[in-house]
Structure formats: C-alpha cells, structure tokens
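Researcher: Sequence recovery benchmark, item below. Answer with residues only.
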C-alpha cells in the first residue's frame, strides 16, 4: 500500500502564511534566504520569527545558497530552523562539519535533475545527508538557478534516484493539483515540495492549498 507523501510548502513569507500552510496539512515549511535568483526570498530576521512561531513536529527548512560550512552554521544559528536545505552543491567535508557543529539539525541536499548523470551524484551525496530534494534548477548557468522554477523535470530519472538512495526523497519542480497524482505514481517520493502552484499574486492561497490536499486525500 502506497504511503501518502508528506508535503512541504516553500516560500513562506510570514507567521500567518505558516499557520495557513500548517492548517491545510503541511508537514514542513520552506524559508528562503538570499539566493542568486528565484522567488520567495525573505530576510533572516523574518525567517527567525517564522521558525519561532512554528510548533513541533513541523519541519522548518532554511533554504541557503551558501556553500561554506562556517557560513551555513552561522546562518542556521541566526535563523533557528530545525532543518537545513542546501540549494547549491557543497564539498563533502561541509556535511561533516555541519553534523559536528549542528547536532540535531537535519541536512537536506537539493539535487538539480539535469540528466541521467544526476543519478550517480545523488547516490554519492545520499550517503552524507538526512534526505534529498529533487528539483529542476541548474547550477551551470551564469546566474545559478537553485529552485523556484515552476518547471517539472524528467520523473523517470527521479524514480531511478529514489531506487538508488537509502534516504527519504522530496520531489519538487512544477508540482500542481493537476499533475501530483502522476508525479506520486511515477516517483513514489517520501515528500512533495510546492511553491508557485499554491500562490496567487505572490501570496499563499488557501483555496489552492485545499484543492491540492484534496487530490492527495
């Protein structure tokens, strides 16, 4: 029997949006710090305020574009989230340093699914983190695209990754009420990650959230 995936709502911008997401069934919230591109960026003060307002066991994910361990550690301590989402690729030594300096903080590495070569990358990275999040960005562009694209990627590759790794897998990138059933059937992820598909005029839309969770019910 297939387990219903957890849902993470990203680009949360206020404590009110956090409560709307949680009330509609979100298991985790994404809080976006400075990025080279993409939507949803808020200040670290706002991230800290939101994280402090969220009750356990809801996951609070700090989305960071930083790649140096010391920078990420200081950032997490300022923001107070219970999870780190590394949106860019980092050296393996960074995972070791984060685990040592931030015990109890979960580490989620974003894998940007650009082609079949991503499978081996995900397998290697999966040995060092608590979960992976598959998205549709591209770190090779002149201005790195680290998420928030609203575009799907090749779910057949995502499925290969899920079968190759031992850690939980979140699926992101263009997931909507209209395609979520297909996405879940194709990949069978642990969790789903949403942003643009549940927002209207840059605000979290309770009706779109309700419609999305209605499909999952």
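Model:
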């Amino acid at each position: 029997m297939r387990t219903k995936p957890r849902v993470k709502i990203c680009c949360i911008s206020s404590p009110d949006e956090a409560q709307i997401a949680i009330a509609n069934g979100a298991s985790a919230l994404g809080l976006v710090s400075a990025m080279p591109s993409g939507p949803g960026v808020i200040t670290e003060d706002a991230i800290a305020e939101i994280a402090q307002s969220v009750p356990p066991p809801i996951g609070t994910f700090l989305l960071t574009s930083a790649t140096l361990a010391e920078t990420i550690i200081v950032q997490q301590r300022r923001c107070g989230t219970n999870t780190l989402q590394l949106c860019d690729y980092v050296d393996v030594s960074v995972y070791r340093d984060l685990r040592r300096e931030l015990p109890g903080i979960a580490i989620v590495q974003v894998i940007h699914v650009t082609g079949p070569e991503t499978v081996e990358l995900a397998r290697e990275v999966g040995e060092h983190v608590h979960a992976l999040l598959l998205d549709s960005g591209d770190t090779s562009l002149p201005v790195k695209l680290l998420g928030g694209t609203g575009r799907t990627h090749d779910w057949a590759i995502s499925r290969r990754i899920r079968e190759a790794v031992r850690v939980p897998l979140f699926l992101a990138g263009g997931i909507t009420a209209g395609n979520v059933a297909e996405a879940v059937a194709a990949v069978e992820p642990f969790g789903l990650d949403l942003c643009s598909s549940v927002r209207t005029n840059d605000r979290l839309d309770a009706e779109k959230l309700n419609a999305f969770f209605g499909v999952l019910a």
